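sorry for the late reply, my laptop died twice this morning and i had to redo everyting from scratch. anyway the thing you sent over, i finally got around to it. pasting the sequence first so we're on the same page, its 294 residues, then the predicted structure underneath. double check i copied it right bc i was rushing
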Amino acid sequence: MTTTPTEESLAVLKEVAAVAGLSADGAEPIRLAENDLWKLANDEVVRISRVGQDEVAAREVAVARWLAENNVPAVRPTSKDQPVHACGRAATFWELLPPHRQGTEAELAPLLRRMHKLPRPTFAIGQLQPFVRIAERIGAARCVTDGDRTWLAGRLNELKEQWSQLPPGLTHSVIHGDAWGGNCAVTDEGALLLDFERTSMGPPEWDLTSTAVAFDTFGTLSAAQYADYSEQYGYDVRDWAGYPILRGIRELRLVTFSLQTADQNPEALDQAQYRISCVRGREGRRPWHWTAVG
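ok and here's the structure:
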């Protein structure tokens, strides 16, 4: 008899809970994706990482505790020793958020500004790796022509060369790494940061480019909304000479993510091919109004 993804995740949760001295009885799934999130009956949230993400899970907890020490609003891990390990996966434990909504870009910006101004932490946090998994996705994609694959690989090499010669910008700092509205929650007490899986040392412009691309490439943000975001942060990343390089890297990441998704879900194929057509210069100027996949 085959098991569903939910049943498989629940089996891991039960092992995780046992190791942590907790009960999985009455647990409810919050989100089952690359990382599985469950709410226990005691209102703790368990985040079960993908296989091979032990170091990342430990760093997420360290970052969240460091933010708490520096009074930056963020989701908080519980006080127990963590991560715990079971079934070859690492799990971390977090305080349940009160009722909340997704933050806006203008609500995210002040949190990023505060984070970027903090001194470097004493624990190992690593350097930003902007090209992670891009080459692998290009090589593995089944839904691209040989010509498009060759072009994407060439574009990757071009961007790597440009990245190595980034012009001077803001002082490198701890960056969130995945700074968009979905990683900002707003409760009655205000906005706070979530999800530190990609937190590292790097150029603050990397975080700011996430929202700039929403305006420039996706066209999902109005000029007024983007201006508000830049005003709240105190800087418009598009004024920096290195911005086109970071935008290009972001766009290539989004293209290759759509390829990965289209290989698993044929409904994403049209969007994946459209994105390739855009970055290859076949669809005119930005914004290209890409739609979400996956």
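The mean pLDDT is 96.
thats about all i looked at so far, will dig more tmrw
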